[in-house]
Design a protein that fits this description.
alpha/beta, Rossmann fold, 3 domains, six-stranded mixed sheet, 32% helix, disordered C terminus, binds adenosine-5'-diphosphate
Length: 296
């Protein structure tokens, strides 16, 4: 089963072109869709979830035409939206049971087993009787995954799931996602590089509605081999360095900026070569897309 997005475009009525001829072939397994806020991720996710129309282009999931056979797609779709409401005054188990009824699982015993299995899978079994109002952000997101898995989806769409989670909750969430079946196409949209680094075998970086780069994270990192250098500088030097080098990231360490630059040749001048990571891949794409600079 493969999801193929072919030349998908969408312009909102305010003139914003949120998707610009997107072409992606997404196999089963975890696929990371990485991009900054406003890149077009949610527009693409909502279109894939059959909640929004595109202007042009096509999407197929296996033999199904996603844009035309919406009912068939919904049978095999799981969706965890960026924001979702929960009934606060009932327990996780009761709500999951109720949602399973709505999704057409009418046999009581079958439903009971399914609900228990999903609560186990998302590590919520021990808190199944707790009212959802008492759930932390991470627990709510795991509940969101449990409900998205009710119909054993072939396509699972997870939109910005780790935003607002603390590191421990994020890790728990990663563990749940990493155990999802290899027979499912899972699309994880995020602006957090670590989400992709931890989980995804394939990825794409999008910005301003366009795909900038796609491939396997490790291969994309390899392509930067020997091209990333770092240097610790002082704060007042930062602007100068930005003028003269292709600075792809700046972080503070003990109050001092450490910059990473992209360079085809050894820049000398106190820079040392480093092994690139996925953040370097991401920022080199986003920055060169946002403010084109000459590589020195
Ligand atoms: P992301 O999920 O990557 O943050 P979105 O898909 O939400 O990106 O947004 C892409 C662009 O489309 C942004 O510039 C956003 O302001 C715009 N946009 C999103 N939804 C709408 C809408 N309903 N009407 C008009 N513009 C929108």
């Amino acid at each position: 089963m493969e999801l193929i997005i072919n030349n998908l475009s969408k312009t909102y009525s305010n003139g914003i072109r949120a998707l610009d001829t997107i072409f992606l072939e997404i196999p089963t397994g975890m696929f990371g869709l990485l991009g900054p806020n406003g890149a077009g991720k949610s527009t693409l996710m909502r279109t894939l979830a059959t909640l929004q129309e595109a202007d042009s282009g096509a999407i197929t999931l296996g033999d199904l035409d996603l844009l035309k056979q919406k009912n068939e797609i919904r049978q095999v779709l799981g969706y965890l939206p960026q924001q979702f409401g929960l009934y606060p005054k009932i327990s996780a188990e009761v709500l999951l049971n109720h949602l399973a009824v709505l999704k057409g699982i009418t046999n009581k015993n079958e439903r009971k087993e399914l609900v228990a299995a999903l609560l186990h899978k998302t590590n919520l079994y021990d808190v199944r009787n707790l009212n959802l109002s008492g759930f932390s952000g991470g627990m709510k997101q795991r509940f969101g995954i449990a409900q998205a898995l009710i119909n054993n989806p072939k396509l699972l769409i997870v939109d910005e799931p780790t935003a607002g989670l603390d590191p421990l909750e994020r890790n728990r969430f990663y563990n749940v996602l990493s155990e999802l079946g290899e027979n499912t196409v899972v699309i994880l949209s995020t602006h957090i590089v670590d989400d992709v680094k931890e989980l995804c075998t394939n990825m794409a970086i999008i910005n301003q509605g366009q795909v900038l780069l796609k491939g396997e994270p490790l291969k994309l990192i390899d392509e930067l081999y020997g091209k990333v250098y770092k240097k610790t500088i002082t704060k007042h030097e930062l602007e100068d360095y930005k003028q003269n080098y292709q600075v792809i990231s700046e972080t503070l360490f003990l109050g001092k900026p450490i910059i990473h630059i992209l360079s085809e040749v050894d820049p000398r001048n106190g820079f040392s070569p480093i092994a690139a990571d996925l953040e370097d891949v991401y920022f080199s794409q986003i920055l060169s897309n946002t403010h084109p600079k000459v590589i020195i």
